[in-house]
């Protein structure tokens, strides 16, 4: 390398650590008078928001919170949690958003494992936190949030969020980290197969995630974004930081029920939101067809599981422009998208929905998302049939698992983050998940995708939810077994379900047994297939 290219040192003029907290200064300077927050009767501008963030950050620092300190937050999606996504990084601390649907024992485990120095809790959730402290065997200092839209008498007698605002003092600028590799957030996996793992995000990744989301979603300035994705899911997929960058408005409902979501969309002119497929299904079922479709269509990202094509058909007719994205906790959320192709416009609604259910192509801030053959270490053929594991490489991959170097090393083997998801790649380069690797059913030497079978089941009018796992079989080794949760009041039989699937799938892919029951789910709504696999092991056909 030429020596003269090495003579330029980094300076304050040409090198600034990347951090999403810088977006707040931008919002205040450029969009100060615009509305940042709408929640019930509460409406605040970006000037108000920035002032509150600085006061909260100052109050936290006076309480002893500094660089590298973990602060856990047990709170639904309300303005205070939005503010903390800026205030806590400003202190140098690390925000750990706790899943409000978890049982006390798991919350206790996370608080202990995360080395939480402080818990900020919404008062309605104090009973849950109290039980978690009992399971933990000790208490952690607490700051309580009082939500005027959800009055409650619960209290631990500690200081309040308002106290932070009162004892804080304005600071002139939004502080950036000394090093963009510093931790900004600690998120825990859903724990479907054991104890949840702590996933560490850095400032650089969070900043680039926000930029990549804007580019991938073609998001304009001043969006009106409805906060549906829980902020305990990958920090709301990074969308709180996106809204600040664009000077948009964040609309809150606290509880993401279909009626509140639909009312907020109509009342506030919502333009964008993100939601899991189950939320889209609830919205589709809540609409009676008597109301006109949203116009212009509302931009929606969905992720968490491949959405059944039937759900995409329904939401499209409602005026929801849904784009499937794919990602994991370890990748800050979405890292690929199913970008609409013009050629799909000539297809019928069902064909369009099936294509929209693909996981698509990498987002622009990701270096590579590749489906890799485990035997050769090379990308699989683009034939829609050859299966491999999704590997990810880029700046929006976690730093690692907190206090778990062995799991971190395993996840990063050979220079990739290994997702555990089995997928194929189509001729157009679009990726499609076939299964979690442990959920692939190998029957008589044929690979059967449980996702494909589940998509067929969801088309049956009586099926509310479905999961397919392997069941032992004397001749074929294993065959598909369907666990089905019926809609309220619906009636059907196993034979009818199997016959229905045979009408939509190759015969060997159809379930060989059907079990009707309420499906076990995690606190985030994911079906706990490991329980169903254990149940299926005791069955045979």
From TrEMBL:
Domain of life where this protein originates: Bacteria
Keywords: Fatty acid metabolism, Ligase, Lipid metabolism
Segments crossing the lipid bilayer: none
Protein name: AMP-binding protein
NADP keyword on record: no
SUPFAM superfamilies in UniProt: Acetyl-CoA synthetase-like (SSF56801)
Residues annotated as domain AMP-binding enzyme C-terminal: 452-526
Ranges where the AMP-dependent synthetase/ligase domain occurs: 29-402
Organism: Aliiroseovarius salicola
Pfam families membership: AMP-binding, AMP-binding_C
Record-stated family: Belongs to the ATP-dependent AMP-binding enzyme family.
């Amino acid at each position: 390398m030429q020596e003269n290219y090495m003579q330029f040192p980094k300076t304050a003029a040409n090198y600034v650590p990347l951090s999403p907290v810088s977006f707040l200064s931008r919002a205040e300077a450029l969009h100060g008078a615009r509305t940042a927050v709408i929640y019930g009767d509460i409406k605040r501008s970006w000037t108000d928001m920035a002032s509150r963030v600085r006061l909260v950050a100052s109050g936290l620092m006076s309480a002893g919170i500094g660089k590298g300190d973990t602060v856990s937050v047990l709170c639904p999606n309300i303005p205070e949690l939005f503010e903390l996504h800026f205030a806590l990084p400003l202190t140098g601390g690390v925000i750990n958003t706790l899943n409000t649907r978890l049982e006390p024992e798991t919350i206790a485990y996370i608080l202990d494992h995360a080395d939480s120095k402080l818990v900020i809790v919404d008062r309605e959730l104090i009973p849950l936190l109290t039980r978690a402290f009992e399971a933990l065997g000790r208490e952690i200092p607490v700051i309580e949030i009082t939500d005027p839209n959800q009055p409650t008498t619960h209290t631990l007698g500690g200081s309040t969020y308002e106290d932070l605002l009162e004892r804080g003092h304005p600071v002139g600028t939004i502080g950036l980290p000394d090093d963009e590799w510093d931790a900004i957030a600690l998120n825990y996996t859903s724990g479907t197969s054991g104890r949840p793992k702590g996933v560490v995000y850095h400032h650089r990744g969070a900043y680039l995630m926000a930029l990549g989301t804007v580019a991938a979603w073609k998001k304009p300035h001043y969006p009106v974004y409805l906060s549906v994705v829980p902020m305990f899911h990958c920090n709301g997929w990074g969308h709180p930081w996106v809204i600040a960058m664009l000077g948009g408005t964040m609309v809150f409902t606290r509880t993401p029920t279909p009626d509140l979501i639909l009312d907020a969309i109509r009342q506030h002119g919502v333009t964008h939101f993100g939601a899991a497929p189950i939320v889209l299904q609830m919205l589709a079922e809540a609409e009676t067809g008597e109301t006109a479709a949203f116009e212009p269509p509302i931009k929606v990202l969905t992720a968490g599981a491949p959405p059944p094509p039937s759900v995409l058909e329904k939401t499209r007719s409602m005026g929801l422009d849904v784009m499937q994205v794919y990602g994991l906790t370890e990748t800050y959320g979405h890292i690929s998208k199913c970008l609409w192709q013009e050629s799909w416009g000539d297809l019928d609604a069902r064909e369009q929905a099936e294509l929209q259910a693909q996981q698509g192509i990498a987002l622009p801030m990701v270096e590579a998302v590749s489906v890799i053959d485990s035997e050769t270490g090379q990308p699989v053929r683009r034939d829609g049939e050859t299966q491999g594991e999704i590997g990810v490489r880029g700046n929006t991959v976690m730093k690692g698992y907190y206090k778990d170097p062995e799991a971190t090393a395993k996840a990063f083997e050979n220079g990739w983050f290994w997702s555990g998801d089995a997928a194929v790649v189509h001729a157009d380069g679009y990726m499609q998940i076939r299964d979690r690797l442990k959920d692939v059913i190998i029957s008589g030497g044929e690979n059967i995708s449980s996702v494909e079978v589940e998509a067929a089941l969801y088309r049956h009018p009586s099926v509310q939810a479905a999961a397919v796992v392997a069941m032992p079989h004397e001749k074929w080794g294993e065959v598909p077994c369907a666990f089905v949760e019926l809609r309220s009041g619906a009636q059907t039989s196993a034979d009818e379900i199997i016959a229905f699937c045979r009408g939509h799938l190759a015969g060997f892919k159809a379930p060989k047994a059907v079990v009707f029951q309420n499906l076990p789910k995690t606190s985030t709504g994911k079906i706990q297939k490991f329980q169903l696999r254990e149940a299926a092991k005791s069955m045979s056909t």
